[in-house]
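Q: For a teaching session next week I want to show students how multiple molecules come together into a single three-dimensional assembly. I've collected the sequence lines for a complex. Could you give me the predicted structure tokens for the whole thing so I can convert them for display?
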Amino acid sequence: DADVTQTPRNRITKTGKRIMLECSQTKGHDRMYWYRQDPGLGLQLIYYSFDVKDINKGEISDGYSVSRQAQAKFSLSLESAIPNQTALYFCATSENPGRGNTGELFFGEGSRLTVL
Amino acid sequence: DAKTTQPNSMESNEEEPVHLPCNHSTISGTDYIHWYRQLPSQGPEYVIHGLTSNVNNRMASLAIAEDRKSSTLILHRATLRDAAVYYCILTCGSSYGKLTFGQGTILTVHP
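A: Of course. Below is the structure for the complete assembly, covering every listed component.
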């Protein structure tokens, strides 16, 4: 089983609909992230959370919201989806900073969202 | 944030070494150099990172210039599975875990 699991993997929706993408992890990491990737481009950070009570905006948070329901769960919502939010969305986790850890991010397999 | 510059694409033959360059002329003293790669239809995966000294792990080697304004990811023997987009990313302690991805280098490996 994957350490970072995203659901759904693929979703087609219509403009104006509310959409939730869910992420769960079994790595025991405190830090979780949501990234967006447009075709042919690198990833952009939407929101991040360093623990259950901590939520922070990333580079492109407009039009998105998040919920950290538990250490293992971090959800991304599009309250009213629009076509330019069509993209590939990735969830990631990492450890807290500390001696010996690499700062490595562990990514899920992605959720492909199409907004018509 | 300090930015990185990478070639858009590179090609290699299977079982040959590959040297992927990255320029980061505005790097600050606290910036770490991270490399990630993204295989087709997958999320990015960590490859290696370093601060000042060259680094080796089971996947690759990272050679960092003495002035730290450039670095090179070295794949010692490319395989077809190494075909991916490689991202060179700078990150400092205050932004630990928050990565700024550029467009990366598309590596093609020929049989």
